[in-house]
Design goal:
This protein is an alpha/beta fold. The protein contains eleven helices and eight strands. It starts with a strand and ends with a helix. The chain binds phosphoenolpyruvate.
């Protein structure tokens, strides 16, 4: 299975900045001596998706979004339907990111409904799970992540899971290789237990949480790590390209 390196730009980038960043990444990839061994995805804010789509069209780099609504259309002021993202050529959508779970009170059930709508529209959902610092300190990380998988993934889930310990997101404190290996092994076992052998084994599991050029090589070479969801480091073309390179050599 090819790894996926996905950039989550969060709420960063006016259209001119998004255009420049997407162009720098596209050029870095096309000027590299070898084509990327990983699949690549950029998830800008909604307002920059059309701009990024124009830059990336034909490059082999996919683009996606950071959230969507669970309805196809209707009276949902301020929301964006999955079909609207497909209309912009988006292939993936991040769902249940911890920042949405915590700042927008998104529950597992909400994430599951969004997942169903995203798949119905032809998008590949990237569902984020991960424990808080308090939960890890209490030894509850596997319970929490197991429940999030059970609650957030619908029947027939055909997407991607991102294990993102909340305490590692945007903090510069990545999980240790031992913690990543242990949790990815657990997530794989849970996916197989909950979805069945074939479906559970086929789902890529990304790691997210302060991935940077220095730690990417070690993280991406761990078993069961199907790629990385990269926040801060995806906003610098040089850093993101260097992370991609680690996927190539992992
Ligand atoms: C994220 O936003 O999903 C993320 C992992 O952020 P960062 O890489 O900045 O920790």
């Amino acid at each position: 299975m090819r790894q996926l390196i996905a950039g989550n730009w969060k709420m960063n980038g006016l259209t001119a900045e998004a255009e420049a960043l997407a162009e720098a990444i596209r050029e870095g990839v096309s000027n590299a001596q070898t084509p990327p061994a990983a699949d690549l995805l950029l998830c800008p804010p909604f307002t920059a998706i059309a701009t990024v789509a124009r830059v990336l069209a034909g490059s082999g780099i996919a683009w996606g979004a950071q959230d969507c609504h669970m309805s196809d259309h209707g009276a949902h002021t301020g929301d964006v339907a999955p079909g609207m993202l497909r209309d912009l050529g988006a292939s993936h959508v991040i769902l249940g990111h911890s920042e949405r779970r915590h700042h927008h009170n998104e529950l597992d059930e909400t994430v599951r409904e969004k997942c169903v709508a995203a798949m119905r529209a032809g998008l590949i959902p990237i569902v984020c799970v991960g424990e808080s610092e308090e939960q890890r300190a209490a030894g509850q990380e596997q319970d929490v992540v197991g429940w999030q998988i059970k609650g957030s993934l619908p029947d027939g889930f055909a997407g991607i899971v991102a294990y993102e310990p909340v305490w590692a997101i945007g903090t510069g404190r990545s999980a240790t290789e031992e913690d990543v290996a242990a949790m990815h092994g657990f997530v794989r076992a849970e996916l197989i237990r909950q979805l069945g052998e074939d479906a559970g084994a086929a789902i890529p599991v990304l790691y997210g949480g302060s991935v940077n050029p220095d730690n990417a090589g070690a993280i991406l070479s761990l078993p069961e790590v199907g790629g990385a969801l990269v926040g801060g480091a995806s906003l610098k073309a040089h850093d993101f390209l260097s992370i991609i390179h680690h996927a190539e050599t992992a």
